[in-house]
Write a structure and sequence with these properties.
4-stranded mixed beta sheet; 5% helix
């Protein structure tokens, strides 16, 4: 799979045939990141400059093909404006909707997704069984202009802060799938 800067596509490639076999369509901004499900490579999450993240299930493909023979696949779920402040959603919906999501990550519990906003510096955790509300979020300083990085094993989050410090957050899953975030 390749993410693209052409504002709407993720392409699925057959490496042996050296051709695109499917296009995942739905984002309205460039796709910033992709992450497969930890145990099912047919399920993918993507984050976009349009401020949304989307879930894709490759098993739910469309029967329609374009002129190049590529299958068109639509997302199975989308969360728009995932990193907007509630006030921004009401007051400046169009302008605020451009808040980019930089990394997305499927966590090892197989149902949680972590997203990080490029502008709000907050890492949010979502339960894929109910995407209407964020489960929890974290940021060392909500007013800072920090950038976050999630470790590949989803055990730690690193954020740099405008106060000149780096913070490492350890992510621990506790009873009933609740999320406990602590500063290391």
């Amino acid at each position: 799979m390749t993410a693209s800067g052409d504002h709407n596509n993720i392409k699925v490639w057959d490496i042996q045939e050296k051709k695109c076999t499917a296009i995942l369509m739905g984002h309205t901004g460039s796709v910033k990141s992709l992450c497969p499900h930890p145990t099912n490579p047919e399920i993918i999450v993507s984050g976009s400059r349009d401020g949304s993240f989307a879930l894709w299930d490759m098993r739910c493909n469309s029967s329609s093909k374009n002129i190049h023979g590529e299958i068109a696949i639509c997302s199975t779920a989308v969360v728009k404006g995932a990193h907007l402040f509630p006030r921004a959603k009401r007051v400046r919906r169009r302008k605020a909707a451009s808040m980019s999501i930089t990394p997305v990550l499927y966590l090892k519990d197989e149902v949680s997704i972590a997203t990080a906003g490029a502008v709000d510096s907050i890492v949010k955790f979502w339960d894929t069984r109910s995407l209407k509300n964020v489960v929890t979020q974290t940021s060392p300083h909500l007013e800072s202009t920090e950038k976050s990085i999630i470790s590949p094993d989803a055990a730690h989050i690193l954020s740099g802060s405008s106060d000149g410090n780096a913070y490492i957050w350890q992510v621990r899953f506790v009873l009933l799938g609740a999320l406990d975030i602590g500063l290391d």
